[in-house]
Amino acid sequence: MKTLNVMLFTVLALVISGCSSQPDYRKAEGSGYGYQETKISDTQYRVSFKARGTDKTKAMDYALLRAAEVTLENGYDWFVVTHRETLVDRERVQPDTSLGYTSSRDMVTRCGLVTCTTTSYPRTSMSAGVHIGGNESSEIQSILEVKLGKGMRPDTDYSFSAQEVKENLSPKE
């Protein structure tokens, strides 16, 4: 019996880990979750990261990380964020609904001076309802437009060393 419990636990653990094994930081498939980039010119890119959840900071960090990778892949040292936008789309999904049918009988007793009579009446009712609320789901997308550069990095709050960003924001394994 103990062996069966251990086997069931192991199978359950594998199923759970298989469902959650897709990494957060990944290339987006189609318009799905993950990072994407679009080349605007030789030194300008639009980079985005889309995630499900409520962690805006993680989405912004991963967009910066992808900007750093694009910068290094193209032989540049630094990048400047020229435009930043973070979109949060909250929606309520899968509202709970219910349909019901009940059948019962109403018993009515009438009493006179001498006797009482009881009569039974059938009663049916139908009900339908929608639970307002359901589950809340969020989709966060961080979009950056960046300009790539080499050599001396501009001294602004919006310029970043690509190598430092990559070292600091890469997912830890």
Automatic annotation (TrEMBL):
It comes from Pseudidiomarina gelatinasegens. This is Lipoprotein. It comes from the Bacteria.
